[in-house]
Amino acid sequence: MKMPVIRHLVETQTLESLLAAEEALLEEQTPAFEVEGEDEGEQLTHVFAAIFIINHIQDHQSDFKTALREYTKKVRVSIS
Asked: What is any Pfam family matched here (predicted)?
């Protein structure tokens, strides 16, 4: 998971385009825009993170850093 890639997706893509990219990756297809990542799994992780962050920003009127912190908290909890 690379934070600069996630930030780029949040800043350049709409929620709708990210959801379409998620669907494409899940169907083992190529998204309509480039998603950086070592493999499809990392690309999907970047898209999931961007979707979470955009939703968090909209739902809680927060900024990118706060939403990213919330996402990384969820990841840490799921790993432990």
From this structure: DUF6952
